[in-house]
């Protein structure tokens, strides 16, 4: 160990960095020892902070009082206090109750006005310093003037979505559920008032097309500060998201920014956080060992929230969904599945359900997901590349090995030679330390996630794999008039048919476009054109960019799920700009549907 330390000290001058590496190696050698005590509920759960518990009470009372029409539970958990909690709570408890906790509309509205600040007032507008109305070199391949004009409007939306945390929050964080992040950020929009984890990757892709490098880095610095504080990137920048993460794309953000800016010091500052995050996804309940049919043991990851109560931002909805469960242990298990599904980013989808028409059968923690492991493989490759770039061959080598192991695991556990795609694997319901792969664990249903590994160069540079994937993707039923459907199930959940989501279009298209096969590249371009058209047409009709689109026909936005359709919208804007940057738009190609 001592020899190793001296070696590290000689090659890397930054003491913080050395510390992280030492911690990292310590942790990777100890993390195999985590015992598997209970099959269903690993991971400790601490109680909610008092502010969150109080705002949950306000949320439940508001539902009883105002009724369920247009009710958004998140609105109440995002409010902040005008006075300290004990005074506020005393006032709230002394409101006159009519029956079963119900307060009159007048009394509750009066209380909220007097004692609480409106949701969203904890963030203030921030003028991005690197915004220009038409940056030089903006989308050089877009020749069509109509498209160019529209793209500049999308570009100008970065201004609308740019925020920073109000100084009041930083001075008095106990009154807010918003976390006191220091740097400016870009938010998704509408009810998503704060910065989100995986959304930020596509926001950043758009900001890079918009040449807004400082705004892009600033988002990453905020996310890194969350890793410093919590050990992982939170789902979003609120205290009530501190029990789960989201699809891990921090390394992808850093490497894309580095690619455009060549900023080595940015990479150096980011690497310790990436090492820490890698540990988070490869230890404790997130880590699963599985033995394949040939007897090799692999290590893969799953989504697993450290939470077994209703999600505070959706408490009233989660309690309602859990009503049909009869005892507390079943409810706790279900709440953990709800939070773990939120960690997956696909909340909600039949992809995670044992019974497609029963949300209480969510079983996300029993699934080894193709997409999550693809993102972690990317993380390992990114870390190896960055470590090499800054001259740290030890870390680089370690992560190259880790990526080789995960590639092998992905091929062995997920790849189906006959169906020529990667399938999620369902763990059988048992408590084993090492799971045993069985053919019946493969989930052979068509999901967009079955094709996400093609995003990774290891796969898209292999022509024979790409050929197979193009063929199986074409016959999957997922390719629709206006883009890639998420699944084929008509469930009315938002990560199901007929919704298409910008991030899924982007990773699959980008993967196919990187191939040397003409067939894959033209498939990528065809999907991108459909996606751009439907975004354009819907924007012309509604005046806004949407969170999701209905892929059945050009010009329709999406619906379903537990809240009304949202506009703004960070990742959709980012993907339109990234597609236009990659493929351009010729003068004579019609943009309308
Ligand atoms: C879970 O979130 C709560 C806030 O809601 C926080 O107080 C607690 O520390 C978190 N627990 C874990 C294990 O992260
Ligand atoms: C909260 O505010 C009230 C009234 O301003 C004050 O009397 C009380 O001491 C405060 N409590 C705490 C815990 O700060
Ligand atoms: C963006 O902000 C500008 C200026 O505040 C406003 O006029 C415009 O309506 C906003 N656009 C959207 C789509 O929100
Ligand atoms: C950025 O990415 C492109 C495309 O993958 C690659 O050709 C280029 O070399 C990269 N640039 C840097 C500085 O890494
Ligand atoms: C809870 O109810 C389920 C059936 O819905 C049952 O299988 C389970 O044993 C019960 N658990 C406890 C702790 O009572
Ligand atoms: C699936 O759930 C629905 C709705 O709760 C129920 O009617 C049906 O019987 C369930 N199917 C199976 C196979 O359990």
TrEMBL record:
Q: Which InterPro entries match?
A: 6-hairpin_glycosidase_sf, 6hp_glycosidase-like_sf, Glyco_hydro_37, Glyco_hydro_37_CS
GO BP terms in the entry: trehalose catabolic process
Q: Which UniProt keywords apply?
A: Glycosidase, Hydrolase, Membrane, Transmembrane, Transmembrane helix
Entry EC number(s): 3.2.1.28
Q: What is this protein called?
A: Trehalase
Pfam families for the chain: Trehalase
Record-level Gene Ontology MF annotations: alpha,alpha-trehalase activity
Q: What class of enzyme is it?
A: hydrolase
Family, according to the entry, reads as follows: Belongs to the glycosyl hydrolase 37 family.
Highest taxon, organism lineage: Eukaryota
From the record, give the transmembrane residue ranges: 7-27
Could you tell me which species this protein originates from?
Papaver atlanticum
Does the record carry Transmembrane helix as a key word? yes
Kindly state which reaction or reactions the protein catalyses: alpha,alpha-trehalose + H2O = alpha-D-glucose + beta-D-glucose
């Amino acid at each position: 160990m001592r020899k190793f330390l001296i070696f590290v000290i000689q090659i890397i001058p930054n003491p913080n960095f050395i510390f992280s590496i030492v911690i990292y190696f310590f942790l990777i050698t100890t993390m195999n020892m985590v015992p598997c005590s209970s099959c269903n509920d690993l991971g400790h759960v601490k109680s909610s902070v008092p502010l969150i518990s109080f705002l949950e009470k306000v949320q439940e009372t508001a539902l009883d009082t105002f009724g369920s029409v247009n009710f958004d539970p998140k609105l109440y958990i995002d409010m902040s206090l005008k006075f300290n909690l004990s005074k506020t709570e005393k006032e709230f408890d002394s409101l006159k109750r009519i029956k079963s906790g119900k307060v009159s509309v007048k009394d509750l509205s009066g209380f909220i006005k007097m004692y609480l600040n409106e949701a969203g007032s904890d963030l203030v507008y921030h003028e991005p310093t690197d915004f220009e109305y038409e940056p030089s070199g903006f989308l050089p391949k877009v020749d069509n003037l109509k498209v160019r004009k529209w793209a500049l409007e999308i570009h100008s939306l970065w201004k609308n979505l740019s925020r920073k945390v109000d100084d009041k929050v930083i001075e008095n964080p106990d009154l807010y559920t918003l976390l006191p992040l220091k740097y400016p950020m870009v938010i998704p929009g509408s009810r998503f008032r704060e910065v989100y984890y995986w959304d930020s990757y596509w926001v950043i892709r758009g900001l890079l097309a918009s040449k807004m490098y400082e705004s892009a880095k600033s988002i990453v610095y905020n996310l890194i500060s969350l890793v410093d504080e919590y050990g992982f990137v939170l789902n979003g920048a609120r205290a009530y998201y501190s029990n789960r993460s989201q699809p891990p794309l921090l390394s992808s953000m850093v490497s894309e920014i580095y690619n455009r800016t060549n900023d080595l010091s940015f990479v150096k500052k980011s690497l310790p956080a990436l090492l820490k995050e890698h540990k988070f996804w490869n230890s404790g309940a997130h880590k699963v060992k599985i033995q394949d049919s040939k007897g090799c043991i692999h290590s893969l990851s799953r989504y697993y929230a450290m939470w077994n109560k209703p999600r505070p931002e959706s408490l009233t909805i989660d309690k309602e969904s859990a009503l049909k469960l009869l005892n507390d242990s079943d409810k706790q298990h279900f709440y953990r599945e709800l939070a773990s599904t939120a960690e997956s980013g696909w909340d909600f989808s039949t992809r995670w359900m044992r019974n497609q028409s029963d949300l209480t059968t969510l079983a996300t923690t029993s699934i080894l997901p193709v997409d999550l492991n693809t993102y972690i493989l990317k993380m390992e490759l990114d870390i190896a590349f960055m470590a090499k770039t800054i001259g740290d061959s030890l870390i680089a080598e370690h992560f190259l090995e880790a990526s080789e192991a995960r590639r092998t695991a992905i091929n062995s556990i997920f790849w189906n030679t006959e169906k020529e795609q990667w399938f999620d694997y369902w763990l059988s319901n048992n408590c084993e330390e090492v799971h045993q792969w069985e053919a019946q664990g493969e989930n052979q249903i068509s999901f967009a996630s079955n094709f996400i590994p093609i995003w990774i160069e290891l796969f898209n540079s292999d022509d024979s794999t790409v050929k197979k994937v193009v063929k199986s993707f074409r016959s999957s039923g997922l390719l629709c008039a206006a883009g890639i459907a998420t699944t084929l199930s008509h469930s009315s959940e938002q990560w199901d048919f007929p919704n298409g989501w910008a991030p899924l279009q982007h990773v699959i298209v980008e993967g196919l476009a990187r191939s040397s096969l003409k067939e894959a590249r033209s498939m990528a371009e065809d999907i991108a054109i459909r996606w751009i058209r439907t975004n354009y047409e819907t924007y012309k009709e509604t005046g806004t960019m949407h969170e999701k689109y209905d892929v059945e026909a050009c010009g329709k936005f999406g619906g379903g799920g537990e809240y009304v359709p949202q506009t703004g919208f960070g990742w959709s804007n980012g993907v339109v700009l990234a597609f236009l940057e990659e493929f351009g738009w010729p003068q004579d190609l019609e943009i309308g549907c």
